[in-house]
Specification:
This protein is an alpha/beta fold. Helices cover 37% and strands 16% of the residues. The longest helix is centred in the N-terminal third of the chain and has 20 residues, at 112-131. Its cofactor is pyridoxal 5'-phosphate.
Length: 405
C-alpha cells in the first residue's frame, strides 16, 4: 500500500519517482517541501540556501509577499478566460511591460520555449511580409552553444548532441555561427536572414559573457543588413545582471525581446515576446495563439513583477551584491576554482576537475546546506535570489570554500 505523501521521507519520495516519472532530469537528492525568500526546507525540516533560484525564475525569492498577494487577489476574482474574450488584467500588463523594456507591443505566452518559438515565427513572418524574402527561404542566424529551450524546432539549432540525438528530423532554416564573433556573423547574414537570435549572456553554456562591444556590434550589423535582432533574455533578464535587461550593459535595444522565467515570479509560467510595433504587427487573428497565454492570473502576477522591477531595487541589489560575489570568487581562484565569469548576481564557476565534477561539488554543497546546479563538466552556476542578503551570500561563498578545500 502506498503511504500518504505527508508521511513519506525524502528517500521514500525519491524512490517513488523512479517508476512513475520520466527520467529527463537528474535532480540533486533533496526533496523540497516549503520555501520562503532565499531559503528552502526539505521534508525532514532541513534548511538550504537556494543559490540557483529556479534557474532565475525566482529572482525575487520564494513567495515574495507582493507577488503572493497579487496572485491571491486574482485567484479570488478570475483565473482564465482564454483569448476568446478580453480579460481586465491583460492591457495593464502589456502597457507596463512595454514601458519597462522600451518597446511597443507584447505577445504573451507561458514557457520560455514558447516565447522562443513565437519569436521565430514572428521573425519569419516579418521577413516575408515586410522584408520581402521569397516564400519558404527565411533564415535565422544563431550562436553555437546556445540554449533556447527544448522543442523540436529549438533543438534543431542546438549544438548540444544530448539535446538533439534521437529527436530528428529537424526544422531547417537556421545557420549556426560561433558566439562572440562578429566576423562570422557578418559572413552568415544575407538577404534571406530574418533575424539574429542570441542570448546576451549564454546561461546554460556556463554564464558565458561576450566581449564588450559584441552586443552593440550585433545591433549595428543587424540594422545595417536589414534583419531583426532577437535577444533571448529569458535567463539573463529581469534584474539578474544588475540591469533590467542584460543588453542594457551596452545600451542596446533589440527589435525583439524574449522574456520568461522571473516574469512569472516563480508562481506561474509567464513568458512574452516584446517587440517594436512594426514587427509584432505582422500577426493577425488566427495566425498564432495559446489557450493560457495572457491569462488573468499570469497577467496579475506579471504586472506585480514589473512593478517590483520599476522600483530599481532589485537591479541595484544585483549590482551591489554582485561585487561581493565577484570578490569572493576571485579569492577562490587557484584554491579549487580555475576561473569564473560573473555579472551581477550570476556566475559560472569552473571548478578544478581534480577536486570533483560539477555534480560532485553540488552534492557536497548540498550537504553544507547550499543548493546549486552544475552545468557542463566541472562548471557550477550560481544565481541566488536577488533578495539574498550580504551575510547569506558570504555564507554560501564560505560553504564553497569549504567544499573545495
Ligand atoms: C535563455 C533561455 N531561453 C529559453 C529557455 C527555455 O525556457 P523554458 O524552460 O521555460 O521553456 C531557457 C531555460 O533555461 C533559457 O535559459
Amino acid at each position: 500500500m502506498t503511504a500518504p505523501a505527508r508521511t513519506r521521507t525524502s528517500d521514500d519520495l525519491i524512490r517513488a519517482e523512479g517508476p512513475v516519472l520520466a527520467h529527463n532530469y537528474h535532480p540533486l537528492p533533496v526533496v523540497v517541501a516549503r520555501a520562503e525568500g532565499t531559503w528552502v526546507e526539505d521534508v525532514e525540516g532541513r534548511r538550504y540556501l537556494d543559490m540557483l533560484a529556479g534557474y532565475s525564475a525566482l529572482n525575487f525569492g520564494h513567495r515574495h509577499p507582493a507577488l503572493i498577494e497579487a496572485a491571491h487577489r486574482q485567484l479570488d476574482l478570475l483565473t482564465l478566460t482564454s483569448r476568446a474574450f478580453h480579460n481586465d488584467r491583460l492591457a495593464e500588463f502589456a502597457e507596463r511591460l512595454a514601458e519597462l523594456t522600451g518597446l511597443d507591443m507584447v505577445l504573451p505566452m507561458n514557457t520560455g520555449a514558447e516565447a522562443v518559438e513565437s519569436g521565430i515565427k514572428v521573425a519569419r513572418k516579418w521577413a516575408y511580409d515586410v522584408k520581402g524574402v521569397p516564400a519558404g527561404q527565411a533564415t535565422i542566424v544563431v550562436a553555437a552553444e546556445n540554449f533556447h529551450g527544448r522543442t523540436t524546432t529549438i533543438v534543431s539549432f542546438s549544438t548540444d548532441e544530448t539535446a538533439r540525438e534521437g529527436f530528428g528530423p529537424f526544422t531547417p532554416g537556421f545557420r549556426i555561427v560561433p558566439y562572440n564573433d562578429l566576423d562570422a556573423l557578418e559572413a552568415a547574414v544575407d538577404e534571406t536572414t530574418a533575424a539574429v537570435l542570441i542570448e546576451p549572456i549564454q546561461g546554460e553554456a556556463g554564464v558565458i559573457i561576450p566581449d564588450s562591444g559584441y552586443l552593440a556590434g550585433v545591433r549595428e550589423l543587424t540594422r545595417r543588413k536589414g534583419c531583426l535582432f532577437i535577444a533571448d533574455e529569458i535567463q539573463s533578464g529581469l534584474g539578474r545582471t544588475g540591469r533590467t535587461l542584460a543588453v542594457e550593459h551596452e545600451d542596446v535595444v533589440p527589435d525583439v525581446l524574449l522574456l520568461g522565467k522571473a516574469l512569472g515570479g516563480g508562481i506561474v509560467p509567464v513568458s512574452a515576446v516584446v517587440a517594436r510595433r512594426e514587427v509584432l504587427g505582422v500577426l493577425h487573428p488566427g495566425e498564432h495563439g495559446s489557450t493560457f497565454g495572457g491569462n488573468p492570473l499570469a497577467a496579475a502576477v506579471g504586472t506585480a513583477v514589473v512593478e517590483l522591477l520599476e522600483t530599481g531595487e532589485f537591479q541595484r541589489r544585483a549590482t551591489e551584491l554582485g561585487v561581493i560575489l565577484r570578490d569572493g570568487l576571485t579569492e577562490l581562484v587557484g584554491r579549487g576554482v580555475l576561473g569564473f565569469r560573473s555579472r551581477g548576481l550570476w556566475a559560472g564557476v569552473d571548478v578544478d576537475p581534480a577536486i570533483g565534477t560539477g555534480r560532485e561539488v553540488s552534492e557536497r554543497l548540498m550537504r553544507e546546506g547550499v543548493l546549486v546546479k552544475d552545468t557542463h563538466g566541472s562548471t557550477i552556476r550560481l544565481a541566488p535570489p536577488l533578495t539574498i542578503t550580504a551575510e547569506e551570500l558570504r555564507s554560501a561563498l564560505g560553504a564553497l570554500e569549504k567544499v573545495l578545500a
